[in-house]
TrEMBL record:
<dbReference type="InterPro" id="IPR035976">
    <property type="entry name" value="Sushi/SCR/CCP_sf"/>
</dbReference>
<protein>
    <submittedName>
        <fullName>Uncharacterized protein</fullName>
    </submittedName>
</protein>
<dbReference type="InterPro" id="IPR002035">
    <property type="entry name" value="VWF_A"/>
</dbReference>
<dbReference type="InterPro" id="IPR000436">
    <property type="entry name" value="Sushi_SCR_CCP_dom"/>
</dbReference>
<dbReference type="InterPro" id="IPR036465">
    <property type="entry name" value="vWFA_dom_sf"/>
</dbReference>
<dbReference type="Pfam" id="PF00092">
    <property type="entry name" value="VWA"/>
</dbReference>
<dbReference type="Pfam" id="PF07699">
    <property type="entry name" value="Ephrin_rec_like"/>
</dbReference>
<keyword id="KW-0768">Sushi</keyword>
<dbReference type="InterPro" id="IPR050525">
    <property type="entry name" value="ECM_Assembly_Org"/>
</dbReference>
<dbReference type="InterPro" id="IPR000742">
    <property type="entry name" value="EGF"/>
</dbReference>
<dbReference type="InterPro" id="IPR011641">
    <property type="entry name" value="Tyr-kin_ephrin_A/B_rcpt-like"/>
</dbReference>
<keyword id="KW-1015">Disulfide bond</keyword>
């Protein structure tokens, strides 16, 4: 039976979060203080459309009990909220969940174990099954599991990061540590935290309640990377604020059985996972738009395309400006060609520009109508001579192109400069 002071101490146990992602700050760079909401919202924005490998280390110890509920539940709310704007899929962000109590357990490992679908839908299902047990606090074992995945026996399929490939293509590594900060089993984790810092990572820490501020400041990269919340109510409010409104641009339909969807999907649709929402819905194939349900997928119209299976309820993507095509059900921007009289590279996403004819000089002793003739495709220029002079060559010139739109624009019926005699 503990003393009253011990009881109060455990009542004030806290949850901290360390965000670790891979890039080093320039020497001498000044850091400013942010609220937890501002900084974590920035984190969401930074990683919303990029690749990252994110670890969540969840404290599973008995000290997380408060007011008849567990901080473990709040940890799960925080993780779910933080991930609302981050896509989970093999080619995007990969996630790992590691619980640590008396021992550490890897509950989810999408970072190096690539045998499953590894998308947001599968993550949500697996994450919902993770339960609180509550024993000791072996934070050291949790970091050891991270090291096993990054550096050890489970690192085979880990994507390279900056410490391995500093000038090449690399994927940021991020670790969120959720703990009461009072390790009481397995030894001091600081050597493993320092190992993470040595490997060119950055640590953010968020404390709740009776936080060991000395430990947290030592764990964080700078004082500006340490955040504090007085209680779990404030902590849950933070999770709500950073959640925001989910945006749904990407879906994963690879190997997802149609039985996962509650609606009957169209013949030109598949059952897919929303990589942000984590929900299964019918999505039209590439080259089709609509809601995805039976009879609700339509082929992309002329001048549009859709390169991915996904939700596009009203239309496909238009070709870049001044380009188009005559195909139905186009799946690629490569089908987009410049309209007649225009030139450029619409396949690169850039609008085509109008072709110019060479400028025709105004003959001496003559003039044009209009006074300043244009030289772009379809420009019409009429030449006249002053009184007493006769025009040599056609009076009216039109800037035109070949029927196949190849080559430069030219004046028709002749590209020869007019003259007045």
């Amino acid at each position: 039976m503990g003393t009253a002071s011990q009881t109060n101490m455990y009542a004030l146990k806290f949850v901290s979060f360390c965000v670790v992602f891979l890039y080093s700050a320039p020497c001498g760079q000044a850091y400013t203080w942010y609220t937890g909401e501002q900084r974590l919202t920035e984190f969401q924005s930074d990683y919303a459309n990029s690749k990252a490998d994110i670890f969540f280390l969840m404290d599973n110890s008995g000290s997380l009990i408060y007011n008849g509920r567990t901080g473990f539940r709040d940890e799960k709310v925080f993780i779910t909220s933080l991930l609302t704007k981050i896509k989970i899929a093999k080619p995007a962000t990969r996630v790992s969940i590691i619980r640590f109590g008396t021992h550490a357990t890897i509950d989810i490992n999408y970072i190096s174990n690539l045998n499953g679908l590894n998308n947001k839908c599968e993550f949500n299902e697996a994450f919902s099954r993770i339960k609180y047990t509550g024993v000791m606090t072996n934070m050291n074992a949790g970091f050891q599991k991270v090291e096993e995945i990054l550096f050890g026996a489970q690192s085979t399929n880990v994507r390279p990061w900056k410490v391995i490939d500093p000038k090449g293509v690399y994927v940021n590594k991020v670790v969120f540590l959720l703990t009461d900060g009072e390790y009481n089993n397995g030894g001091n984790p600081m050597s493993k935290i320092n190992n993470i810092k040595t490997n060119n990572v950055e640590l953010f820490a968020v404390g709740v309640g009776g936080v060991d501020q000395s430990f947290m400041r030592s764990a964080a990269t700078t004082a500006g990377h340490y955040f504090y919340y007085s209680d779990f109510n404030s902590f849950r409010e933070l999770a709500t604020h950073i959640r925001g409104d989910p945006y749904q641009p990407d879906y994963d339909a690879e190997h997802v059985p149609k039985s996962k969807c509650t609606s009957t999907c169209d013949d030109n649709a598949s059952c897919g996972c929303g990589l942000l929402s984590g929900k299964y819905i019918c999505i039209c194939h590439a080259g089709f738009y609509g809601t995805g349900e039976k009879g609700k997928c339509t082929a992309c119209t002329h001048g549009t395309y859709k390169k991915y299976p996904g939700l596009a309820e009203k239309s496909c993507t238009n070709c870049p400006g001044n380009s188009g095509h005559n195909k139905l059900g186009s799946k690629t921007i490569q089908d987009c060609k410049c309209n007649k009289g225009y030139e450029g590279s619409p396949a690169s996403g850039k609008a085509c520009t109008i072709k110019p004819c060479r400028s025709l000089p105004i003959p001496s002793d003559g003039y044009t109508n209009p006074t300043s003739c244009g030289s772009d495709y379809r420009s019409v220029c009429t030449f006249n001579c002053d009184y007493g002079f006769e025009l040599i060559g056609p009076k009216v010139r039109t800037c035109t192109v070949r029927d196949d739109n190849k080559g430069a624009a030219y004046w028709s019926p002749t590209d020869t400069a007019p003259d007045c005699k």
